Structure formats: C-alpha cells, structure tokens
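Comment thread on ticket #2218

A.B. wrote:
> Attaching the input chain for the structure job we discussed in standup.
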Amino acid sequence: MARDNVEIIQINISGTDKPGMTSSLTEILARYDAFILDIGQANIHQSLTLGILFMTTPEKSGNIMKELLFKASELEVMIRFTPISEDQYNMWVGRQGKNRYIITLLGRTVTARHIAEVTRVVSDRGLNIDAIKRLTGRMPLCKDERSPKSCIELSVRGSLTDEERSKMQEAFMNLSDSGLDVSFQLDDIFRRSRRLICFDMDSTLIETEVIDELAERAGVGDRVREITARAMRGEIDFRQSFTERVALLEGLDINVMEDIALNLPITEGLERMMTVLKRVGYKTAILSGGFTYFGNYLKQRYGFDYVYANELEVKDGRLTGRYLGEVVDGRRKAELLRLLCQFEKINISQAVAVGDGANDLPMLNLAGLGIAFHAKPKVKATARQSISTIGLDGILYFLGLKDSRIEA
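C.D. wrote:
> Ran it. Output below, let me know if you need it in another format.
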C-alpha cells in the first residue's frame, strides 16, 4: 500500500563534468535529510550523466527540487525530475533476485553493427542492460595509430532457463564469423575470483605443433602432420595417434630440440598476458599433449608455475621412438586441472582452461571458464567461450581486466 507521507524522486543530470558537482548536489539532499535509494554516474569524454533516486517527504520535496534546479543552472548542466511510485520502486527492488550476466564483445574492432547484433540478442531474450563500459584503451582517430584490439563489456540482468542460455550462447558464437568474439558468463562470485589458468601448449601458446617440427628434422614431416591433423579434429584417438607419431621419431638426435625451442613461433599476446596475470596473482599451468622439454622452456622464459606434458625416452643422445610415463591426453588434462585446484585450495569454478584441440575439450568443459582459442571447428562448436579474432591477451578481457588498470 502506498504511503502519503513519502515521495520518491529520480533526478537525472547531464552536461559537462566539473570538479565537485556530485558533492554540491548531494549536499542539498543532505541538508533536507533525503534518503538516497540509488545513485549511478558515467563520464564519457568529460560529458557527465548522473542519476540519483531519493526518498523524502512532501513538505521537503518542493524546496529540494527548487535548490537542485538553481544549483544545476549555476553549474550549467541539465536536470530532470521524475516522480517514482512505490509500486514502481518495489518492482525495481524485486528485480534483484534475477541473475546477472557479463557479455564481453572482443575483436580487432567492435563496430556499431556488432553492438546492434549483440544487444538485439539481449533484447530478444528479455534481458535488461544495466551498464556498458569499454575495457580497452581509448581509440585514436588515425587508423594507423589505433589499438589492434577493442573490447566492450555489458552487464545485463534477467532470468534465463538452461535452454535459453544455451541458445543465447550459440547466437553469440555465430557472430565470430563477422570478426567478433562474444563471451557470455554468469556474473557470480566465482567469475570475480578466478585464480588458476591452465593452457594447452601447441597451437595455443605457440603457433605450431612441436611434434611436427621434430618430424621435419626426422624426415617424416608429412606422415606425422597428417596424423596430427586427424587427432586435433577428433577423428582418431589421441593416445593412439601420439604413440604412432612418437614412434616415427626414432633415431632423431636430441640436440635439435634446443634449436627448435629457441625458434618457436610465440602466439601473439603471450608475453603481455603472462606479465599481467603474474602481476594480479594468478597461478598458471601448461597442460600439454606435447613434450616437457618445450613446456619447461616456456616456463623459464615466461614464468609459468606448472608444466605437465609428455617425456620422450632418450638413449645414447637419440630418441628411441617411445615415451615415459602416462600420456597427457584429454582425460589426463582434466584430471590434472582438478588436482591443481585441490593443491591450490580453490573451487574448480575459479579455474580457467584454454586450448584449441579436441583433446582440450574435457578440461575446457570442466573449468569454470573454458576458452577455445583459435580452435578447430568441432572444438569451437562445443566450447562455451571462444577467441578467434585476437591474441592470447584477449583472455584478460574475458576476466574483466581493464587496460587503464593493468597497464599502470
């Protein structure tokens, strides 16, 4: 039931931002003991938009609005007053029970068309956009000086069934063909407290498959590449394909491994990503179906915390065509991810997994955030999140990190 002795008023202020503006406006509300129910502010290129929702009594509301109007004129800003009924306010309060989601738009450029397509999907599902912010740095006018990446984050609210979430995710994944990656995440406590990131190595951290490089040196490149491609597409069992490929390396001098390591093609954004992840306290791991020699090289160079990969058997300075221990396949990667979470004393939902091949899917589906990175079609179609437009540092934006904060 509405009460006659209470008035709820929303004020919206817009204009050129000036120091002390929020202070001078809220001082008026404080003088009349108004109760602020909500407040929000955005500033784009010194253009201010400020909204305040407050509660007062009918005896005071007239004087409050009069003083606010005079102050707005003095500050040379526009002010608008909107009365809010108790029913409207209670309806707004009732929306607090709805889920929040974070939608991240990422690409070399994010165009008006991209934003229109994403927000149309949001609108069609009955979700409300609460906030929009840019995570990448400001864009210069000169095209040649522009940042090679652009990212915008939407905070949305609403209720979705599992089927609706799945269809929404599919709609966003389909936009990658237009040069846009879209991440859709539930904005819960785990999304804000990621602690561990596990990476595949070959074709993820490096732009090659190391076993192919070894095969070239052994003179069996074509045979190994064909088996590798079939395995990554999920056409044959990884363990079987791994055994077959390693057998073809028999007799290769191990000295070639150092030369290959020193000339590995490093994936765009790796160094920046690792610098930032270490700065903010993430633990990082390489979980690879490749080889420990190269994983340890990347660990030493970039500071990874853990490396789990396959160990090649060596005899008299040459590869025997066999490996030691258990194969790190898809099942083993998921198992290692779970063990690392236990060791680090974190929930599996606080873990992130990144990979490109079919043998990465178990860990991508297990982690709280699984990202298919420049992945094969089958992997991309199955994964919940995907990055195909920019380098590894795009992962930072899926974690909610902003350039202006991480570059300081």
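A.B. wrote:
> Thanks. Noting for the ticket: The first helix runs from residue 21 to 31.
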